[in-house]
Amino acid sequence: MYDYIIGKVTRITPEYIVLEQNGIGYRVFTPNPYAFRVDEEIRKVFIHMYIREDAQQLFGFKTLEQRELFRKLIQVSGIGPKSALSILASGNPSQVITAIEMEDESFLVKFPGVGKKTARQMILDLKGRLGSLLEHVELPSAQDELPLFGGNAHRQEMEDAMQALRALGYSEKELAKILPALKERDDLETTESYMKYALKLLLNTK
């Protein structure tokens, strides 16, 4: 029904953004809401409309590649929209695509809600079936390691990032492991930068 919405972001929460267009505020769930900013800038957000009996939800993405991978992921048995968002929040799509094509289950199980069975199902369902998503991905050799993602003055930004990680499905136990490292980083100034660093730590500690 929707391909994209062009508007301005008027609200950011740990789970979704509000995108205003022609006087209507659309609640749009995104992989990382803090990748957006509340300002007067007009943005294009690529949309996937998810419909089920008890709900209609909009999922939004900064790039077309993110949205297309999201659509592929939710076709896999055992992966719902929330799990797909968690996977996309942790890095760019090429890293997930590489893991699928290289059958790297150990990488895929690092995401919330993805166990060995689901990781295997992702590989079975999607390997070799990602179409145009493979065009700009340079696959490493089998021996190469799959790259991960690339007294605090910004305590609120850090707490906002932790709340967003909870919304993605990370447990308090997992977050407690990385909190000391986050507190030591006085060079991180935005919620998005805390999110990126925290996700990198989470994927390295599992």
How does this model look, in words?
It comes from Ureibacillus terrenus. It is found in: Cytoplasm. This is Holliday junction branch migration complex subunit RuvA. Residues 71-90, 106-125 form the Helix-hairpin-helix DNA-binding motif class domain. Keywords: Cytoplasm, DNA damage, DNA recombination, DNA repair, DNA-binding, Hydrolase. Helix 6 packs across helix 8 (191-205). This protein has 8 helices and 5 strands; from the N terminus they run E-E-E-E-E-H-H-H-H-H-H-H-H. 31% of the residues are buried. The chain is globular. It has 3 domains: 4-61, Nucleic acid-binding proteins (OB fold (Dihydrolipoamide Acetyltransferase, E2P), Beta Barrel), CATH 2.40.50; 65-134, 5' to 3' exonuclease, C-terminal subdomain (DNA polymerase, domain 1, Orthogonal Bundle), CATH 1.10.150; 155-205. Strand 4 and strand 5 form a beta hairpin. The model is unreliable at 141-151 (pLDDT under 50). Helix content is 41%, strand content 18%. It has a 5-stranded mixed beta barrel. The chain has 206 residues and is of the alpha+beta class.
